[in-house]
Amino acid sequence: MRLMLSVAHHGWHPGAWRVSETSLFHPQSLIDAAVRAEQANFDAVIFGMPDPEFKTPGDGSAASVRFDALPLMGAAIGATKRIGLCGYWPLDVAEPFHVARVMASLDHLSGGRAGWVAGLTGRDNLLADYAHMALFDEPEAADRAAEFISVVRALCDSWNDQAYVVDQTSGIFVDPDRVRPIMHDGSHFTVRGPLNVPRPIQGYPVLVFHDRGSEALRAAVQPLVDVLLCDLPTPDQAAQFRADVRSRHSPSERSSPALVIKTAMPILGRTEREALQRADELATLEAAPSPFFVGTPAGFVAELAKWLAHEACDGFDIRPAVNTCDLDLICEAVASPLRPAVCGNSKRHSTLRESLRIARPN
Amino acid sequence: MTRKLHFGLFIYPGGHHLAGWRHPSVAPKEILGFEYYKRAAATAERGLFDLYFVGDMLAAREREGRLVAEGALNNIDSISIDSAVAGATRHIGVVATLSTTYNEPYAIAERFASLDHISGGRAGWNIVTTANDDAALNFSRKTHMEKTLRYQRAKEFVDVCTGLWDSWADDALVGNRTGGRFADTHKIRPIDHVGEFFSVKNPLTLPRPPQGWPVLVQAGGSQAGIDFAASVAEVIFTAQTKLAEASAFRQSVESRMPKYGRDPASLRVLPGLMPIIGDTEQSALRKEEELNELLHPAVGIWMLSEQLKFRLYDLPADARLPTADIRASSSDFTPRAISLLDKADAENLSIRECGRLVAASRSHGSIVGTPEQIVDHIVAWFEAGAADGFNIMPPYFPNGLDVFVDQVIPILQRRGLFRTAYEGAMLRDHLGLARPVRS
Q1: Which of A131, A162, B31, B39 is the most exposed place for a label (fewest CB within 10 A)?
Q2: Is A78 within 8 Å of B38 when comparing Cβ atoms?
Q3: CB half-sphere exposure, B13, CA atoms < 13 A
Q4: Interface probe, candidates A108, A129, A184, chain B, greatest B C-beta count within 10 A
Q5: How many alpha carbons fall within 13 Å on the CB side of residue A293?
Q6: pLDDT tens digits, one per residue of B118-177
Q7: CA-nearest residue of chain A to B70?
Q8: Per the domain annotation, does B439 fall within a domain?
Q9: CB of B109 within 8 A of CB of B213?
């Protein structure tokens, strides 16, 4: 089982800040959460995921507070040693050259631990803040997304793995025969390249797509990404989705099909009763989507195992409802004696790709 | 309070001397890894530097369509380096370079607000308009935006960013847990900006940064750049190599500041300075010679061609630099290029010699000598008002920085010209700059 932890400021429940014991505004808690996830052997932490309801900035709610993922990824590098560091950077407000350059930089700095979560803001209340961005209709958005991700991949490939020579004796820093411009001229982007960062340690950063239900988008990006992050409500629906992803997989495009990672917000308690009380209390505080699971850490692990046994997904993106409380219990649950049965023994991997068992692209 | 010096550390892969990466003390394979950047930051913090400075480049270094084999890489992404460094340090400011020509203000305001919050108020933004024509081709544009337009865009870009940082009042967070009020919406305002280049409606996604705004840094020395600096820059990173020129530059910026409602006392000027330090003057000169010997001639001539925007590859390296032809080829030289052409004329320099000059210090000031001689140079510029300090550009890392911190800083401290401890928590405190009041 692959396990990722999405970090939100106070937690993923919109009422989290009201029951949280931390100070009202506490950026360091996001980095601390990554440290905790590493101690609990998570494969990766994800920063900057949007609130499911896409709050308008500054609407006064705690859930509208959003940090840019990139400085969080950077700040977590020194605080952690082996956990993957992923960041959400929606591609309707970005440029492929920036994404490739920044992700390649983070991958080198972190020793091969970077992941890019692509997605679409797709909301005009947010795009109103960007001069050149527009809402595309679905087929065009899908086409643009696929082209965007292809350009990022091509830029990472613009340096051959052997191009970075740095030979002090001869004075040759880079072998120009092993670096080539990409000369991309597509319907949405024109990018000459090459990148001005050597090929990332992982070849590409781990490429994650935030799937929000658009069939056209998923079909377009599926051959290009390593992970589909989705939020299907039942094991049956998820199993169907995963089977579909696998049936469309073409071995000529990639060695293995994209992993399906299911988003899951649990509300936990030491006892069933405590968990139910917490869920009730949170529900009275602020309206929220219903949680993935309410119960004890052991019950939570059993629920994850059930989804896996159903072949509904390859792992989970776990979202603590309240950082102070649920994160403790989640870390305890996944680091508990139950975990090896479900997750396998924790192995020490050096790159995020190795940890997720995704091949390095040639 | 007596005026004190300010120091930045300009980090670079390998070192600022273009052959720095070849110095035997450098481990060149490590220059992309976190430890390289962290070690330099720790040393700079031990030396009580004000800030850690990272440049930016949005296109590969090429010579006629191919990567320059002998030239070291530019810095990797500045936000990535700076946020990693911020996570590993406690006091030093972190300044990242981002272009206003190839970014959007909303994203950049959010990025710097995040960095300022995460670092506890230590962020600075080096605002550039990107001088490299090739960058356009990586961003779905056919041509690079013309300079006047770039600065117009930069001005509006910065106005939007400051508007966004000010969109939350300092006391907008209420935090009434029982009543369920997180923030007071009366103290958060949409910026509703509609301008020539941008339209931005919403307030920022984050509370006002700890410093109000990150410290605004700027580096351009052209006429348009000077005007822009006078209107927004709190720190200027300059490239003058002569004291008289540096003084004139500073006066020129200061004289324009009142026009923008700004007090010249709120400006810090930090020229770039590459120190090559030895126990004796002879040993320092030997170090310099050693570095110059390591310099591949192709690098110098390439860099010179780039800087003068004039193709010099086919000419004999020992021929005199064709300054008249070069001057006739363009009317848009950078101040650095003009000062180089003047020097070539005055000293009758060859292409090879000019290439060495450009490559050795990347056209910034350099000083070769004993720690005392370095101190004399720094103090002379400081006392003449040409500089408030320097952005230190070690010729190679880490030794070139270690020597400065261990041998030059203590002399300045003994003379009472540099702090002996950090006196505040934020970059603005180190620089003695006021926190901007929300407009």
Answers
A1: A162
A2: yes
A3: 26
A4: A129
A5: 28
A6: 999 999 999 999 878 889 999 999 888 998 999 999 999 999 999 999 999 999 999 888
A7: A172
A8: no
A9: no
Cβ neighbors of B313 (< 8 A, separation 6 or more) are B63, B64, B301, B302, B305
Q: Do B182 and A173 touch (CB under 8 A)?
A: no
Q: DSSP string covering A135-180, please? A: PPPHHHHHHHHHHHHHHHHHHHTTB-TT-EEEETTTTEEE-GGGB-
Which of B22, B32, B58 shows the shortest C-beta gap to A168? B22
Predicted-complex ipTM score: 0.96
Domains, chain A: 2-356 (3.20.20.30)
* CA atoms of B135 and B128, how far apart (whole Å): 13
Report yes or no: A24 at the B interface, CB cutoff 8 Å. yes
Instruction: Identify the burial level of A209 via C-beta atoms within 10 angstroms of its C-beta, where 0-12 means exposed, 13-18 middle and 19 or more buried.
Output: buried
Measure CB to CB from residue A71 to each of B73, B79, B204 and give the nearest one: B79
How far B202 CA sits from the closest chain A CA (Å)?
6
CATH number of residue B66's parent domain: 3.20.20.30
Q: SS3 for A116? A: strand
Which residues, 6 or more positions from A279, have their beta carbon under 8 angstroms from its beta carbon? A267, A291, A294
- Low-confidence residues of chain B, pLDDT below 50? none
Q: What does the buried/exposed string (b/e) look like for A140-168 if buried means 16 or more CB atoms within 10 Å of the residue's CB?
A: ebbbbbbbbbbbbbbbbbbbeeebbebeb
Q: Within a domain: residue B298?
A: no
The stretches of A26-95 forming alpha helices (DSSP H) are 28-39, 69-79
Amino acid at A348: R
Testing the interface with A: which of B80, B112, B143, B161 to mutate, by most A Cβ within 10 A? Answer: B80
- Chain A (37-96) residues lying within 8 Å, Cβ to Cβ, of chain B: 56-62, 64-68, 70-79, 93-95
CA distances in angstroms from A156 to A97, A200, A202, A211, listed in the order given: 10, 7, 10, 23
Which of B57, B118, B138 is the best mutation test for A, with the most CBs of A within 10 A? B138
**Start-end of H helices in A222-326:** 235-247, 272-285, 297-309
- Taking a C-beta distance cutoff of 8 angstroms, is the pair B82, A109 a contact? no
Q: Name B54's bridge partners.
A: B96
Domain annotation covers residue B438: no
Q: Assign B218 to helix, strand or coil.
A: strand
Query: Which positions in chain A touch B138 (Cβ < 8 Å)?
Result: 97, 191-193
Q: Provide the b/e sequence for B253-283 (b: ≥16 CB within 10 Å).
A: bbebbeeeebeeeebbbbbbbbbbbbeeeee
Interchain proximity B67–A130, CB inside 8 Å: no
Q: How many domains does chain B have?
A: 1
Backbone Cα Rg of chain A: 20
- Residue A173 phi/psi, 5-degree rounding, is -90, -45
Q: Which of B8, B88, B26, B60 is nearest to B400 (CA)?
A: B26
Given a contact cutoff of 8 angstroms between Cβ atoms, the answer to whether B354 and B304 are in contact is yes
Residue at B325 is within a domain: no
Q: Per-residue pLDDT tens for B377-397?
A: 999 999 999 999 999 999 999
DSSP letters, B152-166, are HHHHHHHHHHHHHHT
**B20: burial class by Cβ within 10 Å (0-12, 13-18, 19+)?**
buried
Among B366, B363, B320, CA closest to B340: B363
Compute the nearest-CA separation of A43 from chain B (Å): 20
Task: Identify the domain containing residue B76 by its residue range.
Answer: 6-280+365-431
DSSP B404: I
Q: Kindly report the CA angle at A310 between A304 and A313, in degrees rounded to 5? A: 65
Residues B199-247 have pLDDT tens digits of 999 999 999 999 999 999 998 677 888 999 999 999 999 988 889 999 9
